Structures are given as structure tokens and as C-alpha cells.
Amino acid sequence: MTTHAGRSRSATPASAPAVDTPVLATQELRVTFAGRGGRAGAHAVDGVNLDLRTGEIVALVGESGCGKSTLARALLGLERPSAGRVVFEGEPLRYATRALRAYRRRVQLVLQDPTGALNPRHTVYDAVAEGLRIHEGHARDERERVAGALSRSGLRPPERFLLSYPHELSGGQRQRVVIAGALILDPEVIVADEPVASLDVSVRGEILRLLLRLRADPGLSALVVTHDLGLAWNIADRVAVMYLGRIVEVGPVEEVLTAPSHPYTQALLSVLPESGASSPVVLAGEPPDPTRVPGGCRFHARCQVLASGRAQGVADRCRGEDPGVLEGGTEARVACHWANAGD
Amino acid sequence: MNYLEVEDLRVSYHTPEGEVPAVRGVGFGLAAGSKLGLAGESGCGKSTVALALLRLLPRSAGIRGRILLDGEDVLTMRWGRLRAVRWAGASIVFQGAMHSLNAVRRVGHQIAEPIRLHGSVPRDRVPQRVGELLDQVGLPGWRARSYPHELSGGQRQRVMIAMALACEPRLVIADEPTTALDVMIQAQILRLLDRLVGEHDISMLMISHDLSVLSGSCDRLAVMYAGRVVEEGPAHAVVTDARHPYAAALGSAFPTVGDPASRRAPHGLPGDPPDPADLPSGCAFRPRCAVVEDRCAAIDPVLWPVDSDSAGSAGRSAACVRVLDSAAPEDTGAPDGAETATTRVADPDTTLPTQESGAQY
Ligand SMILES: Nc1ncnc2c1ncn2[C@@H]1O[C@H](COP(=O)(O)OP(=O)(O)OP(=O)(O)O)[C@@H](O)[C@H]1O
Ligand SMILES: Nc1ncnc2c1ncn2[C@@H]1O[C@H](COP(=O)(O)OP(=O)(O)OP(=O)(O)O)[C@@H](O)[C@H]1O
Ligand code: SF4
Ligand SMILES: [Mg+2]
Ligand SMILES: [Mg+2]
Fold it and tell me: Where is this region: Disordered (chain A) (predicted)?
């Protein structure tokens, strides 16, 4: 397989072949971690409705600690919801060991930290073949499939890496081993937590193009957790913006990233170097703390729109009324009194 | 004098499959109070350089060259002296560091430990210092009591940054320090590092694959490819007007949100990443270069000053035959004394502008 120069535009269709029932969804999902030593529990995921349709790539963005990885882990059944649920093909996720195992063959997770995801005593070959062995025993074509997955993930020639141990690889090479391990089972859904964060443009482009190709055929669905808005722009159909455990804005990439409605999304975009914003909004105030979710709009204490007085008409509601949990579906939605007042 | 001087650094890993020449002759200097960014493709040798600087490489690595830290050669330093340097002189934020925290100890303890051992802060003031450090990286003080698994990836990364800054080192080596962090926190950490460098005359080597991170926060930038520096110069110039085709590709490939041309079209480079154990003859970038010429197969270009006739090219160098062509003789004089960080450029009197290909190892 060859890589293509980034000069020509890819031939991926402009919109996903969406069908009606989401393949994977969360309904009013909450994950709370119990507090220790008298501290309140951490509401890491605090009510999330998010749908992922077949052949759709959704980017989940938001600041460090807002609950992205917890949501991703809950989707894979690695965290139990404290309320609400995860729904796969219309059925609530079942947590019995065997049911989970069958589920994880079809839905793969790429973990955020590749070093932690790899066993230091396993070779690259074993790491990539592991999923295959769990689900299919010793496949006759194991070696070819391992080599194929490595090669697709940009580790070429694969023979160079098969017998290496994780400590003999660079950070980005490790990340690609983890990606290869997820791809080898030809999953229907991938939940990828910062999959290309440690990759330079050349490898990054290759992995992203691979995701786009798999989305077109065989219709892979992917939830890509990222802090990189450029990545969302590059590959996602929709983007969901998370703040302190909630999705505060969701919608088609073109809408959300070029005409953001929520003040938090606006701030995020304004700090991008290319935004050309005359005054990037660097948010002030306490970093958000999931053990102490503010009342009213959870963003109000840091909201630059409220602070500037532009939200004067709704200021009381900003401080006193929770804008609520956004519904699922594919429409653009925003959890903000000011934005919803149409001003 | 530069606080850090690296001369012709070469690192080769011995493996059962043979030698892996991961770093093939890298040199640079770093003055106190200045920042050098190191960019390049995954696997090109950036972390290997970082680890070599403090002799943290595994035993399977063979190192050659010179690494002068405040005038002392790190590679020949005695063990005890080296330990002292690692404590007080220099510290490193490892790549993927979020994984290296001790899982069963509270993060506050882990930040406090080097401070206690170092003894620069009275014992009873250590907790306060830990609180300050956490605050600087955007974490509330009560997080000192958290265990690593209770923190998100980016929060752990910030704990590691706090640890690296705990003893006020003179040199900070940061390997992908902000990779897992969102733009807000990233901006905050970069500003913090900026301030430290400015106020305490710290030198910093910052490694990232993200040119936009480096261009905004470093004075100078070196771009590596296949174990060598292929372009070096003032950060802004290297990002906006690179002379080496690889550096140019690196700079142009970042997506612009809102730009229709990059929508659903992630940029990349054609071809395979180089295998350090099996490099092509001539220029290592040749198989992927968009402007390759016949002679590129025969000439292995070294860093060479960029023609100073064109605007903004002072103190710049690149390793490409096209740069060799345009370099006028007077460009090859001593590097500008005002520079804060410079990469060693081939000396025209003693070095031919080309090396015989394949002769490095
Ligand atoms: N096991 C746990 N116990 C207590 N708190 C936890 C636990 N795991 C996560 N948290 C907290 O939940 C919040 C969300 O964490 P999560 O890892 O989901 O964030 P994230 O959005 O992935 O952040 P990052 O971008 O930094 O990776 C954080 O404030 C974190 O401290
Ligand atoms: N212990 C080792 N044994 C053998 N080869 C190694 C070892 N450590 C690294 N390498 C190889 O040396 C090369 C350089 O690795 P290094 O970690 O320095 O890359 P890097 O530039 O930091 O990449 P990244 O951006 O992916 O972190 C890679 O090809 C890697 O596979
Ligand atoms: S609801 Fe009010 S405080 Fe919250 S984001 Fe909107 S304007 Fe700001
Ligand atoms: Mg995370
Ligand atoms: Mg590295």
C-alpha cells in the first residue's frame, strides 16, 4: 500500500452515508468517581447524549480534564455508568464478561497513552496479534495480518518492527503499534483517544487518510477524542465540544468550527494561531473542577460573553439556570442561554 | 559561552538485527536564557538526542561526539558528578511522561521529593512550594493529594512539568511537553516556560512534532530528518520560509480550520519513513522529495549556510544540494556572534560541501 501526496484533495465523499439508528450512543450518561477523604465525588461525565452513526466520524474536543477519556472508556464498557447508559445497535450495553468480549471485537479502543497501553515484555508482533488471538485463536494468516496492520499504520517495512520491544520504539512508533492492534480485527467502530497526538504531519496525515478510507469503505464509524481542532476539520463529519462533563455544543464541523455559537467554542477557536483573532480569548478563572460543578451554566464563571455584558439580557439565567443536557441526533445544538436567545 | 554545546553527536543502538544509527552527527549550541526547538518526523532521533544529553540512554546505545554542559563534557563525566548535574543543573520532561508517575504515591509527594532532596527550600515550606508549582501548571492545590490514576492524561502531563521545574534547573529539556494538552492549557504552559526562561536565565531545548508550538515559543528552530539536522535558523524564518524540502513540507502541512482545501484532506508526505539501518545513498530525504534531482543520489549534503542575499536568511543553514548551489563564499564565515543558539555549520576550510554517502557509520 502506498501513501499519497497531500497535494491533491482526497476523493472521499462529502457526507457520510448516515442511517437512522446510531450504531453507538450514550443516553443521559453519567460517570461519577467517588471522592476520598471527605472530598465530593468527581462528576467526570455529567449527562451526555451522543450518537454515532454508521460511516460517521465524530470528533470530541474539549480542554484537559473535561471528561473525554472517561466518556471514551465508558463507551467501551471500561467504566460503569453511575446513571444513564451506553447503547450499541439499539441495545443497552451488557457488562457480562462474555458479552463485553464479543462487543470489543466489533468496537475497538485506541488508548490515549501508548506507553501504558503496551506490555513492555511483549514484542510488537505479540502486541498487534493479541486481539486476533483472543477472538480467533491462532489464525493461519496471523503473520500476514499483523504485517498488514503495521504497514497500514505507517510502520514500514513491517519486518523492521515485528520483533522490537516497546522501549526500542520512538513515541510515535508506539502509538502506531496501538493503532495497528485496533485495526487488525477490522472493527465496525473505533473509539480513538488522541490517536495522532504524538505524530508529526507526515504520519498523522497517513493515519487520518486511512480513517477516512475505512469510513468510506467498509463504513467504519469513529469517535475521535482530540484536543486538536485541525484534526476535527481534517476528518470529522460532526464535532462535539465538551466542557466539565457535558457536551455544550455539537453539530456539523463546518457549522461549529466556522461559526461557533457557544462562548466556550468561540474561545477555543480564538486561540488557534491561524484564527487571526485580534485578541485571543484566554479564559480566566479557576480551572474547571468536576468535584465542584458550578450552579447555573457551568461555564458562567469563565464566560467571556457574560463578563463583557453582551449576555446582559440572560445574565440571571446564566447564573441561576442550568441550560440542560443536549439531545442526541445529528442536528446542531448548543447549551447556552445567550446563544439560544438568538443574540 | 553557550551553556550547552553539542558537537557531532552520534548515537547507534545495537540490536540483534544489527546497528540502528538513530543520530548521525548532530550539533548545536544553546545560550543561557534562550530556547531552541527541535522538530522532525516520528522516529528521526529527537528523543534519542534528548536522552543522550543527560546520558540517560540504555546500555545498548553507543554514543560518540561531545556534549558540553557549562563547559564540562557530559560523556566523560564521573558518575557522581553526573548525578549532581541531573539533580540541579538540568532536568528533563520525558515524552509520554504521564506514564512514568509512581502509581501508588500521591502526586504531591512525588513533586516534593526532589525539592526535599535538593534542600533548597526549608522543609516546612515544601508543601507551599508544591502548591505554587501546581498552580503554575493550572492545577488546584488539592490535586497534590490525588493519585495518578485519578488524573486525566493532560493533568498527569502537567504534574510531570511541575516536577521538572521543582528544583529550578538551569537547563530544561522538554520532550513533547504539551502534546496531550488542549490549546488553552498549552498556551498557559508555554507562557510559564517563557517566563522561567526569561526570569531565571534558563536554557531550554523543546522537542515537538508540532511546528506551531515551537515557532511561537522558541528563538531558533532545528528540523531533523533521519538522524540529522537538515535545517536550522530563526524559528519564524524556518516555519514560514523553509529551504530544506522536508522542513518546507513540515511547515506547510498543518491544517487551517475553515480552509476548504484542507477539509477532509489531511496533508502528509508521500513515501515511507526512513529506516535508519537502511538509508538510501546520497540525501536521505531523496525518495520522498518533491524536487529531487539526479545528483541527490550521489551527494549527501551537510548543513550549509543559506544565501544571505535573500531577506531573512541570516544565521540560517540547510542541508540540501539546492542550498549548496546558492551559497556565496562570504556566507560561510563565522556564525553571527549575536546569535543565541546556533547549529554547527560545516566549516568551508576543512570540510567539503559533501560527504561520501554511507560513510557515517
Ligand atoms: N479514577 C478516577 N478517580 C477520580 N477522579 C478521576 C478518575 N479518573 C478521572 N478522574 C477525573 O475526572 C475528570 C475527567 O478525566 P478524563 O480523563 O476523562 O479527562 P480528559 O478530558 O480525557 O482530559 P485529558 O485531555 O487531560 O486527557 C478529571 O478531572 C480527572 O481528574
Ligand atoms: N532502545 C532502542 N533500541 C533500538 N532502536 C531504538 C531504541 N530506541 C529508539 N530506537 C530507534 O531509534 C530511532 C529514533 O528514535 P527516537 O525515539 O529518538 O525518535 P523520535 O524522533 O523521538 O520519534 P517520536 O517523535 O516518534 O517520539 C527510531 O527509529 C527508533 O525505532
Ligand atoms: S449560558 Fe450564559 S454563562 Fe453560559 S456560556 Fe452562555 S452566555 Fe456564557
Ligand atoms: Mg484524556
Ligand atoms: Mg520521541
Answer: 1-21
| Residue A24 phi, psi dihedral angles, 5° rounding | -135, 135
The whole-angstrom separation of Cα A311 and Cα A262 is 12
CA–CA min distance B101, chain A (Å): 11
B254 touches chain A (CB under 8 A): yes
If one compares B309 and A9, the residue with the highest pLDDT of the two is B309
Q: Is A337 in the pocket of ligand 3 (CB under 6 A)?
A: yes
pLDDT in tens, A264-302: 999 989 887 666 656 777 777 667 889 999 999 999 999
Which residue, A132, A161, A184, sits at the end of a domain? A184
Which of B150, B257, B268 faces A6 most closely, judged by CB atoms? B268
Q: What is the secondary structure of A232-293 as a DSSP string? A: HHHH-SEEEEEETTEEEEEEEHHHHHHS--SHHHHHHHHTSGGG--SS-----SPPP-TTSP
If we measure between CA atoms, which residue out of A239, A315, A310, A253 comes closest to residue A281?
A310
Residues B254, A196: Cα–Cα separation, whole Å: 13
Nearest-5° angle of CA B48, CA A225, CA B156? 50
Smallest Cβ–Cβ distance between B268 and the set A65, A164, A209 belongs to: A209
Give the count of domains, chain A: 2
Identify the CATH assignment for B4-326 out of 3.40.50.300, 3.40.50.2300, 3.20.20.100, 3.30.420.10. 3.40.50.300
pTM of the model: 0.87
Do residues A128 and A180 touch, judged by C-beta distance below 8 A? Answer: yes
Is B154 in CB contact (< 8 Å) with chain A?
A: yes
The whole domain housing A133 covers: 114-184
Q: Is residue A204 part of a domain?
A: no
* Complex ipTM tops 0.95: no
Reduce the DSSP state of residue A13 to 3 states and report it. Answer: coil
Q: How many whole angstroms separate alpha carbon A212 and alpha carbon A222? A: 10
pLDDT at residue number B155: 86
Q: Is it the case that residue B358 has pLDDT exceeding 70?
A: no
For chain B, the domains span 4-326
The mean pLDDT value of chain B amounts to: 84
- Quote the percentage of chain A above a pLDDT of 70: 92
Is the pLDDT score of A11 beyond 70? no
